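Entry 12.
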Amino acid sequence: MKKTYRVKRDKDFQAIFNVGRSSANRRFVVYSLKTELPHYRLGLSVSKKLGNAVMRNKIKRRLRHLIKGMEEHLVTEDFVIIARKGVEKLSYEEMETNLLHVLKLAKVYQEGSESEEEN
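Predicted 3D structure (tokens):
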């Protein structure tokens, strides 16, 4: 994932948490904030409660890969995904289903894209 697509600075995270809106399901919480940028930016938060560094990095890798596959459906907002307890036990497919559900709740994922409507 390119650096321009990441939320890295603490100031940006705090702005999203304090001003943005949140949505959640049992496995993920998503905070989102509208911005003027022409693309989305993603921040990930995985607590030490979910496992050691290897497990946390595995969860983040899977999340980044899932987001990359959903790129054309994401709106141009900044959003932060927080993984909750239990994510570490999910299979890839279960993680994808849960992530898609919470992104739709947060209105960050939109089904119809321009390229699909043309076909």
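Annotation: The CA atoms of residues 72 and 116 lie 10 Å apart. The chain has one domain: 3-109.
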